[in-house]
Amino acid sequence: MTFARSLWKLINKRAIINKIKDHRPIGLSFIEYQIDINKKVHEIYYCYCKDFENILKIKKPIWGRRYKILNSKNYNIVIQEFFSPGIIL
């Protein structure tokens, strides 16, 4: 199981927004439209979350990462991802 959220700061909306599809993972749009990006990882964490344990009935730690995708001309995006313990990258 994976959960992700993203926070966008668009500098030039028209240049990118028409190419990014809301309903698809952002990485697929970057690949399909050959959009150049730079990724800077800010955090990698391994933790427990009582709310996730109660909702998902999983009594194991989760891990995640937070990173920024940069393209100085058009956008800055912060992405935070959470992964179940069974997912190893």
Q: Classify the helix fraction into a percent range.
A: 10-25%
CATH superfamily: Chorismate lyase-like
Number of H- or I-type helical stretches: 3
The name of the CATH architecture is 3-Layer(aba) Sandwich
Strand order of the largest sheet: 1-4-3-2
Count of domains: 1
Low-confidence stretches: none
Straight-line distance between termini: 13 Å
Number of E-state strands: 4
CATH first level: Alpha Beta
Average pLDDT level: 77
What integer value in Å does the Rg equal? Answer: 15 Å
SSE order, one letter for each helix or strand: EHHEHEE
Largest sheet: 4 strands, antiparallel
Q: What would the principal axes of the Cα set say about the shape?
A: elongated
Keywords: Plastid
InterPro entries: Chorismate_lyase_/UTRA_dom_sf, Rv2949c-like
What report would you give on this structure?
It is a single chain. This protein has 89 residues and is of the alpha+beta class. The chain has one domain (2-83): Chorismate lyase (3-Layer(aba) Sandwich). It contains three helices and four strands. The protein has helices at 13-16, 26-32, 50-56; strands at residues 2-10, 38-47, 62-71, 75-83. It has a four-stranded antiparallel sheet, with no helix packed on it. Strand 3 and strand 4 (75-83) form a beta hairpin. Pfam families: Rv2949c-like (PF01947). Keywords: Plastid.
SSE inventory with pairings:
Blueprint: E1 2-10, H1 13-16, H2 26-32, E2 38-47, H3 50-56, E3 62-71, E4 75-83
Antiparallel strand pairs: 1-4, 2-3, 3-4
Short description:
By secondary structure, the protein is of the alpha+beta class. The chain is built from three helices and four strands; from the N terminus they run E-H-H-E-H-E-E.
